Task: structure prediction
Amino acid sequence: MIPDRHGSEKGEGATAVKQENFSYRLWRYDGAPGELIPLLQSAQDHFGYIPRRAITYISGVTGIPESEVYGVITFYSQFRLQPMGKYVVRACAGTACHVSGAKMIIDTIEDELGVEVGETTNDGLFTLFTVACIGCCSLAPVMMINDSTHGRLTPASLRKLLREYRRSEERSAGESTPVDGQSEVPE
Result:
């Protein structure tokens, strides 16, 4: 089994399909306008982000200068030039969360993780983003870690939660990953 970019194990077939899709898109590129974005999407699906080598390769195949490829990547927010952390933290900055202390929550996350919004921790565990609204206004202030929602946050409860995720990861680092690829993290 091969771990994917999130640490989950998937069969070699899943990785092979992603590689095949990326290679197939590049192979069938016929110079038609409008193919750059699908090529970039395919590269990001394959790598989890768009590495420098993919930009160089796509530029060579399409004949589009690397600077223009880079310009497209940085224009669209869907594209990433850096890998995402295993845990993607989305802190709500919507109105209800704002009036309930979202700024303090975001500052606490930045302090606890040692990153700013849009960055990934050095260990690759956490990536921090803010979002306009998560849709759980009655739980404000709220954030999500991957697909888990955490509300009514305080700086203390937030620090405790993030430390639990980190401890869980440290415990599982010494153990083998379960067959289903899921590590135990607080819900």
In short: DSSP finds seven helices and six strands in the chain. Residues 155-173 form the longest helix (19 residues). Residues 2-75 form one domain. The radius of gyration is 19 Å.
